[in-house]
């Protein structure tokens, strides 16, 4: 069953066309990577899905047309966007950040249980639970951003450059936790990542964007075997 | 000694007036991240609504309730149709828009109802009570009591409720809030509406004393902003205490510091701000924002 389907999606910032017909298909409980150089349209693709940029083409989620919806309406359908730069709420405590993530839920007990789950997934956050998010390190903020997305009990998570600005070992920790989350929760994922090595530890398949178009799509194993992918994204 | 205590009590009473407006400013700031300079102007409009309704024969309490409802609607509309256009841009632009709105409202009120002082009915009786040689007007006691209740309600809203958490989240980062499913536009309207209601209460409390004019709260706005800076933008209890401190110090300085006197007492809160900003930039009760990268 396909959960998310993009067909010929276009988007532009003013006169600059950034997406020029992007297609993407994410099966239920699947994880798909988007690779590409700076400016290829990776982040914009995620924004088109979550409704933060106006898009053309067709975007369906669970068979429903979601193109043109507001970000909060998209979120209410079960799509959690973990934005580039993390977007944690600096003046709120770690616990309050997690509670904001659960804003649309009515099951208090379930929310408390999921907060515990986030703290189990990211033990660093447990010690910082009453600190303001702005006082966290970059890695901890990234963990909090993912945790906040978990709290909304999404069916699909959009992860934008979760390794950006992190030390290699921290980035690996974050991805290890996300992989565990994927196995335990079955949340489908769209993963935008500069570090293709990291991305391939998480996704089943990926597409490569160049100037707003798909140029290559395949399973992780297929892509990792290709010379041009190795040269451009895997460092040799 | 009797004189000193009397000055302190009078200071508390004027401080409560500044506190009322300061609370409304804190509410908008917590809910939208902006300082609304038009808060006083919007509150004056609410007071005119009460005045107009009582002149048409409505009982005072009913007129106040109607005006509060109208104020909520007006505050929400100002957000929806005016401020919404500026929220995505530079915050400085939005603040300047609120200054423009203040000028517009003042002019509009003057054009509609003239700049003459209008008698405004008092919510509390004009009696005074004597206590240990100090006389306090029932009005001051009533005003202070209403402010304390409003302060506790606001503190409870922001600290203890889901709505308060949502309002703060939207103010800090609207995009992240939307990604969590928060209806950002609607929450901003709620924040402005609540603040306008609080402003209406403030205006109704002070109008009998100041008499109603379009610029009635201009002076109080200056003091309220001083209280907001002094108390810290994030703390309802903090700004109320700061407003009381300002009211008291201003009164004491006018009498006991010869070169200040009544003419220069408006300078007192600003001297206080200077000192506090140097020693404790986040305000007396505000939380320091630490940013790590």
TrEMBL record, chain A:
Gene3D superfamilies, alphabetized: P-loop containing nucleotide triphosphate hydrolases
Pfam families for the chain: ABC_tran
Domain ABC transporter: 4-236
InterPro entries tied to this protein: AAA+_ATPase, ABC_transporter-like_ATP-bd, ABC_transporter-like_CS, BCAA_Transport_ATP-bd_LivF, P-loop_NTPase
Gene Ontology BP, a term: L-amino acid transport
Keyword entries, A-Z: Amino-acid transport, ATP-binding, Nucleotide-binding, Transport
Top-level taxon of origin: Bacteria
GO MF assignments: ATP binding; ATP hydrolysis activity; branched-chain amino acid transmembrane transporter activity
Family: Belongs to the ABC transporter superfamily.
UniProt-recorded name of the protein: Branched-chain amino acid transport system ATP-binding protein
Organism: Geodermatophilus amargosae
Organism classification: Bacteria, Bacillati, Actinomycetota, Actinomycetes, Geodermatophilales
From TrEMBL, chain B:
Subcellular localization: Cell membrane
MF (Gene Ontology): transmembrane transporter activity
Primary location: membrane
Keywords noted in UniProt: Amino-acid transport, Cell membrane, Membrane, Transmembrane, Transmembrane helix, Transport
Transmembrane feature ranges: 6-27, 60-82, 94-113, 133-153, 190-208, 220-249, 255-279
Any one Gene Ontology cellular component term annotated for this protein: plasma membrane
InterPro entries the UniProt entry points to: ABC_transp_permease, BCAA_transport_permease
Membrane topology: Multi-pass membrane protein
Family (UniProt): Belongs to the binding-protein-dependent transport system permease family. LivHM subfamily.
Protein's name in the database: Branched-chain amino acid transport system permease protein
């Amino acid at each position: 069953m396909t959960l998310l389907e993009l067909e010929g999606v276009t988007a532009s910032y003013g006169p600059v066309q950034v997406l020029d017909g992007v297609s993407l298909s994410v099966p239920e409980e699947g994880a798909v990577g988007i690779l590409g150089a700076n400016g290829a349209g990776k982040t914009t693709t995620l924004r088109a899905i979550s409704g933060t940029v106006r898009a053309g083409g067709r975007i369906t989620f669970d068979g429903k047309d979601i193109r043109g919806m507001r970000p909060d309406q998209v979120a209410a359908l079960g799509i959690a966007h973990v934005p580039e730069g993390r977007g944690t709420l600096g003046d709120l405590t770690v616990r309050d950040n997690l509670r904001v993530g659960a804003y649309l839920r009515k099951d208090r007990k379930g929310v408390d249980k999921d907060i515990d789950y986030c703290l189990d997934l990211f033990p660093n956050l447990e010690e910082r639970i009453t600190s303001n998010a702005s006082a966290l390190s970059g890695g901890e903020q990234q963990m909090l951003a993912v945790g906040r997305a978990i709290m909304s009990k999404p069916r699909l998570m959009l992860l934008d450059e979760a390794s950006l600005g992190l030390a290699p070992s921290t980035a690996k920790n974050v991805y290890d936790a996300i992989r565990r989350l994927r196995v335990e929760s079955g949340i489908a994922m769209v993963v935008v990542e500069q570090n293709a090595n990291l991305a391939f530890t998480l996704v089943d398949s990926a597409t490569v964007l160049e100037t707003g178009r798909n140029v290559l799509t395949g399973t992780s194993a297929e892509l990792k075997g290709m010379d041009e992918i190795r040269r451009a994204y895997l460092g040799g | 000694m009797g004189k000193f205590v009397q000055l302190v009590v009078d200071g508390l009473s004027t401080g409560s007036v500044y506190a009322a407006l300061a609370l409304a400013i804190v509410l908008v700031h917590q809910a939208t991240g902006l300082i609304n300079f038009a808060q006083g102007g919007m509150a004056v409009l609410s007071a005119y609504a009460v005045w107009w309704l009582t002149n048409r024969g409505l009982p005072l309490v009913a007129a106040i309730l109607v005006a509060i409802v109208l104020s909520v609607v007006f505050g929400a509309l100002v957000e929806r149709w005016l401020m919404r256009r500026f929220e995505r841009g530079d915050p400085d632009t939005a603040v300047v828009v609120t200054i423009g709105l203040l000028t517009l409202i003042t002019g509009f009120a003057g054009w509609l109802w003239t700049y003459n002082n209008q008698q405004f009915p008092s919510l509390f009786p004009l009696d005074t009570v004597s206590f240990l040689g100090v006389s306090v007007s029932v009005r001051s006691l009533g005003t202070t009591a209403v402010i304390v209740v409003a302060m506790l309600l606001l503190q409870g809203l922001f600290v203890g409720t889901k709505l308060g958490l949502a309002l703060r989240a939207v103010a800090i980062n609207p995009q992240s809030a939307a990604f969590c499913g928060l209806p950002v536009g609607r929450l901003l309207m709620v924040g402005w509406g609540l603040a306008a209601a609080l402003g209406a209460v403030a205006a109704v409390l002070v109008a009998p004393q100041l008499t109603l004019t379009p610029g009635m709260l201009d002076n109080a706005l200056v003091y309220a902003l001083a209280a907001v800076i002094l108390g810290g933008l994030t703390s309802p209890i903090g700004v109320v205490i700061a407003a009381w401190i300002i009211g008291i110090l201003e009164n004491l300085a006018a009498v006991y510091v010869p070169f200040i006197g009544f003419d220069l007492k408006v300078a007192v809160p600003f001297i206080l701000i200077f000192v506090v900003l140097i020693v404790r930039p986040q305000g007396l009760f505000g939380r320091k924002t630490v940013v790590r990268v």
